[in-house]
Amino acid sequence: xxxxxxxxxxxPDKSIALRDISFDIAKGEFVSLVGKSGAGKTTLLRLLLAxxxxxxxxxxxxxxxxxxxxxxKLPELRRSIGMIFQDYRLLDSKTAAENIxxxxxxxxxxxxxxxxxxxxxxxxxxxxxxxxxxxxxxSGGEKQRVAIARALIHRPRVIVADEPxxxxxxxxxxxxxxxxxxxxxxxxxxxxxxxxxxxxxRLAKRVLTFSEGRLVRDEENGKFIVL
Amino acid sequence: MFLGxxxxxxxxxxKFLRDRxxxxxxxxxxxxxxxxxxxxxxxxxxxxxxxxxxxESVDVSAYFYDAVSEEQIFQVQEQLKTLxxxxxxxxxxxxxxLSRFVELHRDDEEILEPLQALGRNPLRAxxxxxxxxxxxxxxxxxxLSHTSFSEMLADxxxxxxxxxxxRLGAITVGVRAxxxxxxxxxxxIGALVAFNTIRLAIYxxxxxxxxMRLVGASNWFIRGxxxxxxxxxxxxASCITMLFALGVAFGISxxxxxxxxxxxxxxxxxxxxxxxLLQLIVGIGLGxxxxxxxxxxxxxx
Lengths: 227, 301
Prior knowledge:
Chain A has 227 residues and is of the alpha/beta class. Chain A has helices at 41-48, 74-79, 96-106, 111-124, 140-152, 170-185, 197-203; strands spanning 2-10, 16-25, 30-34, 56-61, 64-65, 81-85, 158-162, 189-194, 206-211, 214-219. In chain A, strand 1 (2-10) and strand 2 (16-25) form a beta hairpin. The radius of gyration of chain A is 17 Å and the shape is globular. Chain B has 2 domains: 2-54 and 170-298, no CATH class; 58-161, 2-Layer Sandwich (Alpha-Beta Plaits), CATH 3.30.70. Helices cover 75% and strands 7% of the residues of chain B.
């Protein structure tokens, strides 16, 4: 479903973020990307969203070379991927419910469907009571749950989570990871970039380990081993 | 399509109402800019009024010998009216001239006494001629001295008044040019300030724009609400400025009118829609253009 083929990324300041990376992710997989800060995890995710272009190589999503897609068609690609960030990145001028509804509005879905689905997703993430609160009125854990709700509401084929538990305490971390596992069990592919050892070890799913821009380990039921 | 536009308008309106820091900053700056633009517009009105009243105060008079009959003078008057340069010709008979003179000097015995002693009316009948512009009096004087009427004329006071009229012409041209330069300078400064404020407001929204892009919003879906916010800021700023300008006008109208004869409140009310339109064009135009330019760089990827 997702294929990185001999991908190298060198930034204009000559720093090398990725060196000749190749791996495939099958539909429905849960893959953790681990490595120290600066190992290239975020760059990998940004390349998939076509936020950046690879210096060499290809990223294929559903048989389409992501970087051959016309700029005007990029929103369509991004709508089939749900993105979760460490710093939540919610729209401050919108309420929790409106943040979640935004993706569906972008897709042009009708109001009745949006209202029904937002209600349902708020229930799943346990935020029904906080629907009309603005991000500034929510705790870190609540914000991240809104972000997850936003990422999954339009039933994307893939959810990409970049350090989603980086700002959360252990209790909320477990909550967020449980949600991701639940989403994955329903058939959505999940790519999770993290440096949380406990999370990765508890998941016991496929782990890709990166170091200095190289893919150094690719294991099913992997453990968090960062050199 | 319709749903998309509706959502953009709704989202822009919410942004305008909720995003208080950027709306507030843009609104304050826009009101200042529009107030400056309105002041320039009023200044232009004051200048036109002053120039017009100065021009109004200028005329040339052609004085006729006593032997010339009223019919003949009327003929000259008719001829003068056919000239393109002539705006208005007023006939002042000998009697009328005397009564005006007496009225003018009614408290000045030193002047009136010799007149009474003279026992007759020494003043001449005349035609007071007003031109459309100060520069046209030369041509009118020329016409009077080169036609058959010249024999009837005892005097045309153009030559005495020519330097004053010329100077007045130069002053009106100067005033108009200065006002135009002031308007252009104020407009340019205002536009730059507004542009930069909106750019800063959008700069602070760059993360929000990035999120919108990453969840798959099209460029118009992202840009639209900012434009609507810009339009609403322009409209709100125009209304606030108009109220403010009217308030200030009511406050200073009395003193200004006593000083210059210009009634600023009357001018504002008379030009209300023109000024409002100008403010809306400037406000909305600045809002839209600055938003488009500022947001463009965040939509590149």
